[in-house]
Design a protein that fits this description.
By secondary structure, the protein is of the alpha+beta class. The protein is built from 2 helices and 7 strands, in the order E-E-E-H-H-E-E-E-E. A hairpin with a 2-residue loop joins strand 2 and strand 3.
Length: 102
């Protein structure tokens, strides 16, 4: 079974995620950018580029906070409840692939 979600910012579609596999506990997805992708792209690219040690977690926290501040949510196409990013699920987007955990 595969699932599909819309990544939304308010009423604007940021992109679509289509599950193609599972690497427990993560759903592996294809990501298709939507009309509002350019407004959030830099924050996701910053998280994707985060490398190296982060002993106190401050670099990671800063990058994640910038994404949380966008007010993004995932809306499943099966009428399940939507999920707020980094409150109810974690989403990492790298190019045209995404990893979702909830």
């Amino acid at each position: 079974m595969s699932a599909t979600w819309w990544l939304m910012q308010g009423e604007s579609a940021v992109g679509e995620l289509r599950q193609y596999g599972v690497d427990q506990p993560v759903f592996l997805c294809h990501f298709t950018p939507g009309p509002a992708w350019e407004t959030v792209r830099a924050q996701f690219e910053a998280w994707s580029a985060l490398r190296g040690q982060d002993p106190d977690g401050s670099r990671t926290a800063h990058v994640i906070r910038s994404i949380m501040d966008l007010g993004l949510r995932l809306v499943p196409t099966d009428d399940s409840p939507s999920m707020a990013l980094f409150t109810e699920c974690i989403l990492r987007i790298d190019g045209h692939t995404a990893r979702l955990r909830y």
